[in-house]
């Protein structure tokens, strides 16, 4: 068994290695100039989170911005790809058809051009900005055939690489550059394959060509003219960073109608880097923020208490866990891929299907200062596992028999109908989005743990949160760092007028308070902040 000194030396070596990696990343950021505005989400001051309204219709998003997101402090919405995609009927209208473009015309099952423009205008008018999921690495699958089975009715021929609605032709694809027998990516340890061959047979665009770069930039600039605030760049790992820089450099400033003069679009890039492949997320730090997939995978493992992990280990969460620098990271507990077992993280990722643990994970993410936070709003589908795989993971959004998407209906208790989950409307998540806004700019402070799965921390003198993920109750006096007063827990309830519908916590003159959380509680955590006092 290792001695204490051996354990200490191992711990110090790990810390030194992480510090060296972090320092290299920071030096890179200094070289490229982190002040560049594409790292700035352009949210209104004091709004620190966005929500991905996955597969929502534009008309429903416009209403949600006005009626719920703006009043509750959400900074923006990530939308599903708005450009024309192939219509797939076998399987029936899967979610992933949205990731198989036919053109850059703005018509999908979420709505047409006019509905899109109306949504962007109405959301911007109430201070909620729009971030577009942008699919520009590829077009549809190589075996998609030909015809006009697309959401705007545009003709295409996948076999001859003919997409006249853009237009793209065979010259605009990477078929000649890819060296694999299949034309698809066969080895993720071969960097050239990953970037020049087809991702799951999707026709790979030749982004080294200025013509292709110009068509991509033309599409994105049209969206900027309409009023979007930024872009999630899908499949960034499969594009050469230099090619991405080239088309991103062609983008206009954001419209002055809703953004300050000289504002640049917010860029965040989908790069899955769990550490086992040669392509590193740091290669993309020069073009914008990057999705930190380690975040949800690791946090899920800790909160599930797998592999001997415990919440006490979260004291140095963030860069201390080998994550990218906080100023670069776009973080999330789950996304539309990982909640289906795709992408990264596997079974450790927490989702709405694990609602008790999921709310704890989101509570931790929204309270902790690391990264820029995104929550997801999902829909239910009939999961059916065979040999550990959900064979229904393809199922598209709630829809009518003709394939049109069902509207998001709102129930009297503020939850959603028609099989829309609306996690962002769960009061615990909504209130933690507000918590993050209230504590913005405050330091991580007053950490406490019981060397197991009971932990607490503050955000300066603005907020404090306590978790009990152990199998026994918590009863402890803690230093909160908060001013004296009676606080309303925003997890068990919330402040409504001058009363509290949940647990009340009294902070005394020296900043301490008593916290009691049963391990049987529906939500075994308490969060208090200075904007919810009695």
From TrEMBL:
It catalyses: Endohydrolysis of (1->4)-alpha-D-glucosidic linkages in polysaccharides containing three or more (1->4)-alpha-linked D-glucose units. It comes from the Eukaryota. Pfam families: Alpha-amylase, Alpha-amylase_C. The keyword Calcium applies. GO terms for biological process: carbohydrate metabolic process. GO terms for molecular function: alpha-amylase activity; metal ion binding. Residues 445-533 form the Alpha-amylase C-terminal domain. Keywords: Calcium, Carbohydrate metabolism, Chloride, Disulfide bond, Glycosidase, Hydrolase, Metal-binding, Signal. The keyword Disulfide bond applies. Residues 48-436 form the Glycosyl hydrolase family 13 catalytic domain. Its cofactor is Ca(2+); chloride. Belongs to the glycosyl hydrolase 13 family. This is Alpha-amylase.
